[in-house]
């Protein structure tokens, strides 16, 4: 967290609410594009405050002059004015509120959009280390929470300052002795208000923490994957108890916050009653001695009633501002985190790609001092299939993530057609590289919208052609609404094979030059897998592909097979050459096809586990089946669901 001001670490612990002036200045920077609303609101605040001073003076005139002189015309005029001035003030207050609301919501719009854009640019390591519920909480709860400092606190400060200053000026003009008597209780009132304000701050922070924890819990458990895990492990009672605990903490915080507010209004009401009593006592004495009029006393009481609430709000406004700035600091904490994967100012927008991919002594570490890749060197010529094979955790997925710059290598370089990927625009990398993972992700949208995610301008004919090529068109047309059928959360209304074939149709539609494939046919039955391989064979022959193979039957005819172990390429060659070498590849082959399907997990002491994350390129949901090249010899005894886990 940021060290200045009130951060999340202070919430509920700090004894006093503190305002970070650095953060406050940064916040005000978001108001610069909307200066006209600031100016308009400020002028309306001044005029409204001045109009509020007129009715007490009109009452004084009516009681001291119009009524004693029996001047009904003047009395009716004063009564009309007593109605007109508050009405005018109310109308101006509506306009003031409109301007302030527009200002606050525009600023929140800018902050929310800036935060969302920044989060999209954050590296994968950020998402592997941060709970998704926490991100959601900052993007929603925190951004909504800071609106108070913009739409309420700013106007309140101006209104209250003008109200207090103008009211005191008129009171001193009427009677300076009575004014001093009226404000003699202010020091006690100030001490009580400040004390209650600090209690409000701690209560508000407690509520915000509980709200964030509740959001995280709901996000993690009430989604398809989380719910399936909870149910299959029979953890419903434990999760209910956990939710009860977090919800109870939120309820207690909200009760405490509400009661602190009641204490605050009790103090305000108490002192607002004491001061008028003093005025009636001393003012009555002056009136009896002919030193002050009855109308002046009544006007004075009305003015005092205008004084205490603005003073109390000014005394506690720092609590609201500090609380809102604490939320701003949480937002700034995300905004200030480095993007890491930056695009150079003069980056090349690669229009055409032949597909030559070169890894030159590439090294990579998720954590400093713990490398997971060591001197990885290979070249994929245009149209070649390069297969990556090896135990789980060996570094296969990490190698493929470096190509579209989901991470940048710690050492060495990666090039496409001789251009270092760091010299290319991120848009062109996304455009020319299609990535696939075993776990297909579909948005909660229609089939058509999911298919067009990789290419929004695709025609209906192109859409159907891609679906036919993936052998999913007949399934789609058999759905209740065809291509307009909602697929559900993460596509859970569809079977695994159906989701995979929709993802395959989507990548066909995108038509990238380079394919990175992570056993994309793993969810398909044998017949669908064979049909899709036949349909995509012409497409793959003209494109470079990097294939992570979990079952060797899919890559027997690869142009080159790289065997990865401990982050290094320990063997390379064709299927026949590697079998003849009788090394790790032969061991994997024998375990798959002679000893049955097994999961191979080799403990790697010299590397950190690679994060299990969804691929997030420019088109994160694109998918493509492995095996576009025809198999040389049908393998007997293979288990289509077998192989190694992708890492």
Structure description:
With 647 residues, this protein is an alpha/beta fold. The chain has two domains: 8-335, Up-down Bundle (ABC transporter transmembrane region fold), CATH 1.20.1560.10; 357-438 and 515-527 and 542-593, Rossmann fold (3-Layer(aba) Sandwich), CATH 3.40.50.300. The chain has 21 helices and ten strands. The chain starts with 20 loop residues before the first helix and ends in a 54-residue tail after the last helix. 37% of the residues are buried.
Reading off the top of the CATH hierarchy, the class of the largest domain is best stated as Mainly Alpha
Instruction: Count helical runs.
Output: 21
Distance between the termini: 31 Å
The structure class reads alpha/beta
**Beta-strand percent range:** 5-15%
Which word captures the global form? elongated
> Which residue ranges are poorly predicted, with pLDDT under 50 across at least 5 consecutive positions?
1-15, 596-647
Tell me the domain tally. 2
Tell how many strands the DSSP assignment holds: 10
Percent helix, as a range, is 55-70%
CATH topology of the largest domain: ABC transporter transmembrane region fold
What kind of sheet is the major sheet?
A: 6 strands, mixed
Task: Kindly report the spatial arrangement of strands forming the biggest sheet.
Answer: 6-7-8-3-9-10
Rg over CA atoms: 35 Å
What is the CATH architecture assignment of the largest domain? Answer: Up-down Bundle
Name the CATH homologous superfamily of the largest domain. ABC transporter type 1, transmembrane domain
